[in-house]
Design a protein that fits this description.
By secondary structure, this protein is α+β, with helices and mostly antiparallel strands. It has one domain. It contains one helix and four strands; from the N terminus they run ββββα. A four-stranded antiparallel beta sheet has the order 1-2-3-4, with no helix packed on it.
């Protein structure tokens, strides 16, 4: 993953690659930090699944309409 992901009013910032297994990412809302410990692996898996679905939908949209796909939301 490796980059910040905006989810509505929340921003998820993953732990840096190659960081120790004990390092967690962060979730912020309105400048307030929400500590992630147990939930980070679940959130990471969920965001990876969403990214995969987004990529698949983009490919299907492209083949169905013949139009270029839109850039992924940051």
């Amino acid at each position: 993953m490796g980059r910040a992901v905006k989810m509505g009013t929340y921003t998820y910032i993953p732990a840096p690659p190659r960081s120790p297994a004990t390092a967690d990412g962060t979730l912020t809302k309105d400048g307030r930090l929400i500590t992630l410990t147990t939930t980070e692996p679940i959130l990471r898996d969920f965001l990876d699944a969403l990214r995969s679905l987004e990529d698949d939908l983009g490919r299907r949209w492209m083949s169905a309409t013949g139009l270029p796909t839109f850039a992924r939301a940051e």
